[in-house]
Fold this protein.
Amino acid sequence: MTGPAPMVTLYGRPGCHLCDAAQAVLESLAGRLGFSLTVVNIEEDDELHQRYMFEIPVVSLDDEEIAKAPISDLTLAVELEERLGPR
């Protein structure tokens, strides 16, 4: 029996091309690595907006930040593969 899928969260905002690119990479990795992806608009939460407005996109895995802008697609993929391994 397996536990719940790991949760990857992408913090960003609409109109952010870097956020869109990170989301595309994460969506392509989600099925292979077996994680769930949640996209959070920092503009909908004052605390998140203050925290991340100059750092987006920010990616966390199970509430641990693992990447901030600028994010390399390859580095992000390698980081997630090392932490999660193929499922």
About this structure: Residues 7-75 form a domain with the Glutaredoxin fold (CATH 3.40.30.10). The helical segments are 17-33, 46-52, 73-84.
